[in-house]
Structures are given as C-alpha cells and as structure tokens.
Design goal:
Blueprint (H helix, E strand, L loop, with lengths): L3 H7 L6 E3 H8 L3 H14 L3 E5 L2 E4 L10 H8 L4 E2 L1 H7 L9 E6 L5 E5 L2 E7 L11 E6 L2 E6 L1 H12 L7 H6 L4 H5 L3 H10 L6 H17 L2
Parallel strand pairs: 5-7
Antiparallel strand pairs: 1-3, 2-3, 4-5, 6-7, 8-9
Length: about 220
C-alpha cells in the first residue's frame, strides 16, 4: 500500500506545501477518513509536517529533490514575493547568509511560520496593490518557481519596513556592505519604477522611501 507521500508524488502534484483542501483533492475520501487513513499516519511517521492548522509540508527527508526555501515561501503564502535582506543576499548584494526567509505581502497582517527549513516571515508593506509586483521577477531553482524582488525593490521594501532615513551612501556601502559596483549597475528606469511604487501621500514611511531613493539616485548620477 502506498504511503501518503508516495501517493502524492505518484500523482505528480509537484507541490511541497498542502492545505487541507488540496489534500482532499489529491487523496479523496471524507474528512475524517482522510485524516485517519492518510494525514495522521504521515505526521506520525515524519513524512508530513503540520505547519499550522490546515497547512502541511512534506518533510525535507521525504522530498525527491532538495526543497527550495524560496518556492516554499511562495507556496506558504501565494500572494507574496521574497524581499528584504533575503532578496539582497540572493542577488549577492550583501555578503551575509540570511537565516530567515523574508517576504513581502500587502493588504493583510504580517505573519510568520516556523518550519524544519527555517523561519518564514511575511511583512506587510503599504503600497497600491496594483504596484505590488513592480520590480519583482519570476525565478526558477531546481525546477521550482518563485517570485523575488529586484535588488532595488528589496532595498526599498527594507527602507520602508525599517523606517530608515537617508544619511549618505556610506550607510549602504559600510553599514549593509553593499559593493559600489553593484550600486553602479542600477539604471534610471529602475529608480523611476520603484519610486512610482511608493508614490503616495497616505503613508509617511512611503514618502521616506522615495526621499531615500531620490538621494541615492542623485549620488549615483542616474
């Protein structure tokens, strides 16, 4: 008899994080029978991990390929993208290896999930939902896709979340240890697009982001 994980893999779902609704679609049977026959045994055997009520993840030991933290972040919260220090590290703009997978969300409360792969945090940013994915691209690692902020968008989100003020470019090159050469790769259009995201009079911190980016653009001569 196939185990729960073998059954899911045999169906070719390609998903590592499941809601109870998705498990119902893949495993069938009624709610009580499904939990007793498939979900609980898989949890007891360490094949399936309960992240929170109604959300489960395949154990890293059971995955056919190494689990990708970035795609897991997207599977946990679909309307999100990897940003902040996590994206800066991914793009090799900062030398530090991050221990938290930080993502941006909009229109909902910030939240976090503690998993065997690490801590996943989701920070709400107050921008126009229509501009939420500006400066964000779709990437693929080990056949798994996810959304991640460009370096400048990640920096802008970080400025917003930390309420940083412009104190000079040394804050970026010495404080965050961003290489001058990386900053020089930025183009005028990059600034124009991201400044538009935070162009709002409703939030003081959003205006602070734009002030920071305008000053950075001026220093770089972009």
């Amino acid at each position: 008899m196939l185990t729960t994980i073998e059954k899911l893999q045999a169906m070719g779902s390609g998903i590592n994080v499941f809601s109870t609704q998705e498990l119902a679609r893949f495993l069938g049977s009624n709610k009580t029978q499904r939990y007793k026959q498939f979900i609980k045994p898989a949890i007891d055997n360490g094949e399936l991990i309960r992240i929170k009520r109604g959300i489960y993840m395949i154990s890293p030991k059971q995955a056919p390929v190494k689990l990708n933290e970035y795609s897991i972040a997207h599977e946990l919260v679909n309307e999100s993208y990897v940003s902040f220090e996590t994206a800066l590290s991914y793009h090799q703009w900062i030398p530090e290896k991050v221990t938290v997978i930080a993502s941006a969300i909009v229109g909902r409360k910030s939240l976090s999930y503690k998993t065997p792969l690490g801590l996943f945090e989701y920070q709400n940013i107050s921008v126009d939902p229509a501009q939420f994915f500006t400066g964000v691209s779709r990437e693929e690692v080990n056949g798994k896709t996810f959304w991640i902020a460009s370096p400048l968008r990640a920096l802008a989100d970080l400025i917003f979340e930390r309420a940083w003020q412009w104190v000079g470019i040394d804050f970026l090159t010495d404080g965050l240890r961003i290489d001058d050469d990386e900053l020089e790769t930025l183009e005028s259009i990059d600034f124009e697009n991201i400044i538009e995201v935070y162009r709002t009079k409703k939030f003081y911190r959003a205006k602070r982001v734009n002030t920071f980016l305008v000053q950075l653009r001026k220093v770089l001569g972009k």
